[in-house]
Amino acid sequence: MNSSVYRTRHLLEGLCSYMLV
User: Fold this and answer.
1) How far is CA 13 from CA 3, 4, 9, 21, in A?
2) Which residue in 15, 20, 18, 21 sits closest to 7, CA to CA?
3) Tell me: the pLDDT tens digits for 5-20?
4) Structure pTM?
5) What per-residue confidence (pLDDT) applies to 8?
6) What is the dihedral of CA 8, 17, 15, 10, to 10 degrees?
7) 1/19 Cα distance (integer angstroms)
8) Alpha-carbon distance 16 to 7, whole Å?
9) What are the CA-CA distances from residue 10 to residues 4, 5, 6, 18, 19 (Å)?
10) 19: closest CA among 2, 1, 11?
C-alpha cells in the first residue's frame, strides 16, 4: 500500500512540476 501511495504522490508532483514549467 505504501508503494502505491508513494508512486501516486510522485506522479502528482511530476504533473505539478510540468504544469508549473
Assistant:
1) 15, 14, 6, 12
2) 15
3) 999 999 999 999 988 8
4) 0.40
5) 94
6) -10
7) 27
8) 14
9) 10, 9, 6, 12, 14
10) 11
